[in-house]
Amino acid sequence: LSEEQLVVAQTPPEPEVHEVLLALITCYLYQCEAQQLVMLTDFEGDMLGHGGALCLASFQVTDSIDSEKLTPRVMDEAAPPHMGLLLDARSQSCREILQRIME
User: Fold this and answer.
1) Are the C-beta atoms of residues 55 and 46 closer than 8 Å to each other?
2) Which of 15, 19, 86, 100 is the most exposed place for a label (fewest CB within 10 A)?
3) Alpha helices, H only, the chain
4) Whole-model pTM over 0.70
5) Which residues pair with 58 in a beta bridge?
6) Is the CB of residue 9 less than 8 Å from the CB of residue 69?
7) Which residues are CB-contacts of 26 (< 8 A; sequence separation ≥ 6)?
8) Distance CA 96, CA 94 (A)
9) pLDDT tens across 30-66, in order?
10) pLDDT at 48
11) What are phi and psi of 20, to 5 degrees?
């Protein structure tokens, strides 16, 4: 999700569409919290850890970690994949989502 063009071949969403996407992501996160799902996270940026700037954050729900014990568990290979999120950390609305996930 981005307010600006993030991927060369894809135009950014119109402001109205962006608001709808934010609402959908908020609902998705409520469901993730209710189910106590674990997310894998990856950050991309310029010189992270050295005073650089965070550019992208990706989040992917995983079944490979038990949410109560935080221990590995066997995944059901037949289960459908979970939705992932790619957030433009340059955008204030995306930074708010990122902060909510990390809390």
Assistant:
1) yes
2) 15
3) 15-34, 92-102
4) yes
5) 42, 86
6) no
7) 97
8) 5
9) 999 999 999 999 998 877 667 778 889 999 999 889 8
10) 65
11) -65, -45
